[in-house]
Amino acid sequence: MSTRAGYSRTVRLWRRGANVDQAPVLFDTEPERMVAAAWLDRTQAQETVWFVDKPGFFEERIWIGDRTGPKAKLDLPTDIETDAHRGWLA
To answer: Could you tell me if residue 61 is inside a domain?
Structure first.
């Protein structure tokens, strides 16, 4: 469940009281990459989940989706840093 760098390799939908090893995987990355992560934006009527795959410290690839997983990869340069709030990506 971790990358060679020691960070998370999977994003899972974990429910309290459930075994984390049995939680469904929504997003993952290769062991050689740095990290896979996600964050939930609840500032809109319809919540959005942002998924990120970081091959290295200064690179990221971003997908937008929901609690079932990523739906669309954003066509952005990989050498940027992002933040999302109220439906805006900065």
So the answer is: yes
Instruction: Assign 21 to helix, strand or coil.
Output: helix
- Let me know if residue 67 belongs to a domain: yes
Q: Is 62 exposed, middle or buried (0-12, 13-18, 19+ CB in 10 A)?
A: buried
Threshold 0.85, pTM exceeds: yes
Angle at 75 between CA 90 and CA 48, to 5 degrees: 55
pLDDT in tens, 20-76: 889 999 999 999 999 999 999 888 888 899 999 999 989 999 999 999 999 999 999
Number of compact structural domains in the chain: 1
The domain in which residue 72 lies consists of: 10-89
